[in-house]
Design brief:
Layout (H helix, E strand, L loop, with lengths): L9 H18 L4 H24 L3 H14 L6 H18 L8 H9 L3 H9 L6 H10 L6 H7 L15 E3 L1 H8 L2 E7 L11 H12 L5 E7 L3 H16 L7 E6 L14 E7 L1 H5 L7 E9 L14 E6 L2 H15 L14
Parallel strand pairs: 2-3, 3-4
Antiparallel strand pairs: 1-7, 2-5, 5-6, 6-7
Length: 351
């Protein structure tokens, strides 16, 4: 880059930009969202520029610019213009990545991101673009952001340090849930009306299997109304795990709930509660210091500016409850869980 020799470490510019934004927002309060948007984009560019200077990879800045253009197209209402722009962007990304054709991305990104090849093919054709969450993973893939595994080494995605009884719930991702599962004694997955497709995505099944392999005593209970689609889809999940990893299949257990004992109203609920009970080591660590965490999962689709689904993947929204609410619910739910068949007594004990 032309100005590579004049760049300062990222921390310096971040501090300066933060100060400027604060002063700017005091004078122009109506432009708060605009200022924050451009501040974020400037910081993202600066980090890439700094890393390019350190590594000598000037292609990073070009990839960052192209992915930024791809993200901006979400708000473009001219369909033909957006389609042509997306095709151009993928052509240039292929060139920057040393590929002869964008088609070489199809298998690579499909395997890396865990999405159908047809989805990547439609991106390249310009039919639609990746959603925001997928763009973040694309930035990781192209070396523009640390990958999840690297982030966990430098700063684990540990449970949030909830404040007091008036804490807000936290919006989390499914990756955060799997991080918590790595520290669990057991997990209870209560399947609601929209949650019957138990781990149908291969990537999610793989994460589940890895968490179980790490601890042979860890158990995941799938709890669903006994006369529901949950029974069929659970057995589909069980069969797929038995075919690929039979050693852990016994750690996945079904717990059918009679309609007369459905205290959580799973047969009517659109959300699916997930409860992780931490093991003794996690309960003693500073990042946890509690017995359980509870999330409510709701599978949704993200729409673009044209009110169209712009990705073939489902988006799993996880709302994590504050610690005091999780503790209160655990006290209530474990008494009910003791009335259900198939749950080990040790998993319902707090010691």
């Amino acid at each position: 880059m032309r100005y590579a020799q004049t760049l300062s470490p990222p921390g310096t510019i971040e501090t300066l930009l933060h100060t400027v934004c604060q002063q700017y927002l005091l004078y122009v309060p109506l432009s708060r969202q605009i200022a924050l948007f451009y501040a974020g984009r400037i910081l993202a560019w600066y980090h890439v520029a700094w890393e390019s200077q350190m590594t000598g990879d000037t292609g990073l800045a070009a990839k960052a610019r192209l992915l930024g253009e791809l993200e901006d197209l979400v708000s473009t209402r001219d369909k033909e213009e957006a389609t042509a722009a997306r095709r151009r962007i993928w052509q240039e990304l292929a060139q920057e990545d040393g590929k002869a054709s964008p088609d070489e991305f199809i298998t690579e990104l499909s395997q890396e991101l865990g999405i159908p090849p047809i989805t990547v093919q439609r991106w390249i054709k310009g039919e639609y673009g990746p959603r925001t969450l997928t763009l973040k993973r694309l930035r990781e893939h192209f070396g523009l952001a640390p990958a999840l595994a690297q982030r966990r080494q430098t700063g684990p995605d540990a449970p949030v340090p909830f404040g007091g009884e008036h804490s807000y719930a936290a919006l989390r991702t499914i990756d955060h849930f799997f991080f918590a599962l790595e520290h669990a004694q057991c997990c209870f997955v209560f399947k609601g009306k929209l949650g019957f497709h138990a781990a149908r995505q291969e990537k999610i099944r793989s994460q589940l299997v890895q968490a179980l392999k790490a601890n042979g005593n860890r158990t995941v209970y799938y709890i669903f109304p006994e006369k529901s689609e949950g029974k069929t889809t659970f057995h589909t999940l069980k069969r797929k795990v038995e075919e690929t990893d039979p050693d852990v299949s016994s750690q996945i257990r079904a717990v059918p709930v009679p309609a007369s004992n459905d205290r959580l109203g799973l047969g009517m609920s659109l959300a699916s509660p997930f409860l992780v009970k931490y093991d003794a080591m996690a309960r003693q660590s500073p990042g946890f210091k509690r017995t359980v965490d509870i999330w409510y999962e709701l599978p949704v689709e993200r729409l673009d500016a044209n009110n169209q689904v712009n990705d073939d993947q489902s988006l799993f929204v996880f709302v994590q409850l504050p610690a005091f609410q999780s503790d209160e619910l655990w006290e209530e739910w474990k008494e009910w869980l003791r009335t259900l068949d198939g749950i080990s007594k040790k998993d319902l004990q707090d010691s």
